[in-house]
User: Fold this.
Amino acid sequence: MEIDLSQFHQVFYEESFEGLDTMEQELLNLEEDSDRENINTIFRAAHSIKGGSATFGFKEVADFTHVMETLLDEMREGLRPVTKEVVDLLLKSVDCLRGMLFRMRDGEDVGDEHVELINYFNELLANEIEDASQQENVFEQSVQESLKDNCEDKVWKIEFKPKSYILETGNEPLRMFRELKGFGHLEVDAHLDNVPCFDELKAESCHIWWSLTLDSEIDEAAVKEVFEWVEDDCELNIDQVPRSNDKNVDKDQLEQPQMEEISEDIKQISSETSGQKADQEEKKQTPLVELKNKKEKSEVGTNTASTASIRVGIEKVDTLIDLVGELVITQSMLSELGENFDMSKLTQLVSGLSELEQNTRELQESVMRIRMLPIGFVFNRLPRMVRDLSSQLGKKVQLDIKGESTELDKTVMEQIGDPLTHLVRNALDHGIESAEERISADKPEEGTLTLNAFHQGGNIVIEVSDDGKGIDPDVIYKKAIEKGLINDSFDTPPEQVLSLIMEPGFSTAEVVSDVSGRGVGMDVVKRNINNLGGSVEIESELGKGTTFTIRLPLTLAILDGQLIKVANETYVLPLVSIIESVPLNMAEISRIAGDMKVYKLHDDYIPIIDLKSEFEIQQDLSSSSEGLLAIVEGENRKIALRIDELLGQQQVVIKSLETHYKSLQGVSGATILGDGRVSLILDVVGLAKRASEGANRRNNKVA
Amino acid sequence: MTLKKTPKKTTVSLGTALDIVNASSLKVRLENALAKNLPVTLVGDKVERADTAGLQLIYSFIKKVEQQGCEVTWQKPSDNLIQSSEVLGMSEQLSLA
Assistant:
């Protein structure tokens, strides 16, 4: 039965990416503290990727990981010291492999980025025995060439001497020989001289070695591929010999077996070192590789439609199953109640329904939890960047990661990666000072960058803080005035001054170099986070450091909402954004220029937004004496919404408006209410922007 | 009444899987058979799977029995058993050719 391997490709890619992440992490650890176990972990990850890619016929990846593995093996054996050069090379290889796998997954050509690295590996590996083997290589080449000439009349001679533990690793010679049999006629001679006497025989050990003769036109690479999984666990000699070689050799051919013997020896040496021979083989195999590439492409092509998947801990699935069980019990209880219902059972019905509600909520929470992944997935890619960037900038930086097990929704996580990278990059680039500057400022030579994540209410909070030079609000203020972002006559509070660096107009390279650096693409960071329904806050103390606090909803799919009524329409406000509500008749409302109504909250004046006019609702609102003002906040900006009534609170499932209609400022999505009606979910930040834009327009008119 | 005396021998059934998984337990049974110092008949009719470890064990066992001056015979070796020994190039040594 033929198994369609493409169904496992997705899992292979996921596992490989995880493996690469592990390798990267361990390589970084290796630099700090060289430990055999680190190398073992890296080796194991590389080995798994190699094994998987070989199984699926991803030859380029398998070949590449093979040379990596050879180097790692030398490191593991203590034959090669752990140097920065080696670690750099391995890190580059991790990047390269990641790129190759990404491209393969997307059905693209794997590229040739790895070829250069393979050559570099081979160079590094061949270096030590280069002198000894150089001459033999030349000789081998000439032997190979002379052998190649009359290739048609030859058979493969294979000597396979497995290590005694080979069977315990699950590698079965029988299977390999069967595979070889598939290529052509195979003769197998088992050498049993080393099999110990019965009393001493350990049943799981292998003491047999084999000589095989394969009559087939396949090339050496295909023969080698059969033994790919065991090449480190055996002595393997593969050679091509003339078919008629056995006995009746004429005088002219007498030298041939000798040459083969020599060539065999050389092969052994070079197969151990994977020297330049890999190159030669690669050239010889070109047609086969091309054929395979085509095959892979078609396989990958069909695979691109496969959906992304996540790994879920078994305990989460178990909880889900338990909850479904509860739900089934409640449902059967209710249906029984419904069959013989009379008014005396009303209390039972009510309690049953509330149980049902409870079960549904728990089930919903559990299902959402399945999508939750630890933020470590994002954090883990940062140490590498910090290492590279700090050495590039010549700064000493210690990265401190906390709360990496804090979970958040996979979709949010996928989108938070880039903004986070940006913040870290900025902190390194512009926040943390050079060692000299730090010493003269009486600070430790090594700067500290801290990443922290924790849950707070319905949000996840991510902090990126550095102990660098901080941001000077005065410089920002002046620049903002220069850029026309704020008016000199306004008294802008300090925290709002800092948030100006995230305004689009502020983000120019020129400004960044003048002020303490922050600003490159900060508007993009802010926009991305806002798109996720989150917010960014900046706190900075001159000379002490800066902290960026990102607040994100745990999930993008469900929102704790407050239903509000405006005329005959129902809207949903995110519960977290509501500060308070005030009856209109008690509210202190003033008018400012441009006919803008403002509400006085403590010492602040908050613009009032009339949702009726914003959404052009035809029906009238309730009289001013009955209405309410809902004070809401987003991104440090408060607005008051004129509404008729606060209805219930409920969790709503967010449906994207953009997908079904188009994106609207002030509306973050829509949801379907219990009674089947569609209701818009209001976006406070968008509404605040609409309000200020409206006010500006009116101001201009007045002017 | 005279009882016809059959030549004494011991029989070992190899089960369905003559492989690495069962090799250790089979070795114990073979050791028990060895202890009897009798000719041995290996029953291989049920063998569906045989591998290197299993066949190597049988080879070593046959040698040992022969050293003791007894003989090992096969009873109905299955096709799978014969094929596996052929692929591993051991059929002659195992007398399965």
